[in-house]
């Protein structure tokens, strides 16, 4: 599959998951907030798949923490270290994402989902599955990602 086709497949899979967001919330206007939180997750993954580091970083709060590969990185460290690899991974292997589970408590929200790599034509399916938790804060500019935690395991 060509690189552009792979990116299009990832974006299509991410967008397809959007209407399936699962929300738990409190108060009025929470459904709109739940949808907005899910959209931040979707936009973040679309930015990774498009190789758009500026768009991905714009969704992170200035004090964001990224937990992956057994370590913790600040936003600046993530930009310099793992972000390029995360974009390459998102571009090279589309993933099937689960519905996004959103919980909101005031100006804090968390979104949880899982993903499994999608096999390309003629290739073996991925041998691992991943879980993701994004913690977000509501700012004057909208919801921003304050923390991301990724973990993965081998599928049986």
Structure description:
This protein has one domain (3-154): Nuclear Transport Factor 2, Chain: A (Roll). Helix content is 38%, strand content 38%. The protein has five helices and eight strands. Strands 1, 2, 3, 4, 5, 6, 7 and 8 form an eight-stranded mixed β-sheet that branches. Strand 7 (128-139) and strand 8 form a beta hairpin. The longest helix is centred in the N-terminal third of the chain and has 21 residues, at 30-50. Mean pLDDT is 82; it is low at 1-26.
Could you outline the blueprint of secondary structure elements for this entry?
Layout lengths: L2 H15 L4 E3 L5 H21 L2 H6 L1 E9 L2 E4 H6 L1 H11 L2 E3 L3 E5 L2 E10 L10 E12 L2 E13 L2
Parallel strand pairs: 1-5, 2-8
Antiparallel strand pairs: 2-3, 4-6, 5-6, 6-7, 7-8
Helix pairs in contact: 1-2, 2-5
Radius of gyration: 15 Å
- The CATH first-level class comes to Alpha Beta
Major pleated sheet: 8 strands, mixed
> In the residues, how many domains can be counted?
1
Q: Helical percent range?
A: 25-40%
Q: Structural class from helices and strands?
A: alpha+beta
**What is the distance, rounded to the nearest whole angstrom, between the alpha carbons of the first and last residues?**
27 Å
| Total of helices | 5
- pLDDT average, as an integer? 82
Low-confidence stretches: 1-26
Order of helices and strands: HEHHEEHHEEEEE
DSSP, total strands: 8
Portion of residues in beta strands equals: 35-45%
Characterize this entry briefly.
By secondary structure, the protein is of the alpha+beta class. The protein has 5 helices and 8 strands, in the order H-E-H-H-E-E-H-H-E-E-E-E-E.
């Amino acid at each position: 599959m060509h690189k552009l086709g792979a990116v299009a497949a990832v974006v299509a899979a991410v967008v397809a998951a959007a209407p399936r967001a699962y929300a738990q919330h409190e108060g009025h206007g929470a459904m709109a907030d739940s949808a907005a939180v899910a959209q931040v997750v979707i936009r973040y993954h679309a930015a990774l798949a498009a190789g758009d580091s500026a768009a991905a970083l714009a969704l992170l709060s200035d004090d964001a923490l990224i937990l992956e590969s057994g370590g913790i990185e600040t936003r600046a460290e993530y930009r310099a270290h793992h972000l390029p690899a995360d974009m390459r991974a998102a571009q090279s292997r589309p993933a099937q994402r689960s519905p996004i589970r959103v919980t909101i408590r005031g100006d804090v929200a968390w979104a949880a989902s899982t993903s499994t790599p999608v096999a390309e034509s003629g290739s073996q399916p991925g041998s691992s599955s991943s879980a993701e938790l994004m913690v977000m804060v509501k700012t004057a500019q909208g919801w921003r990602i304050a923390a991301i935690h990724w973990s993965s395991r081998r599928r049986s």
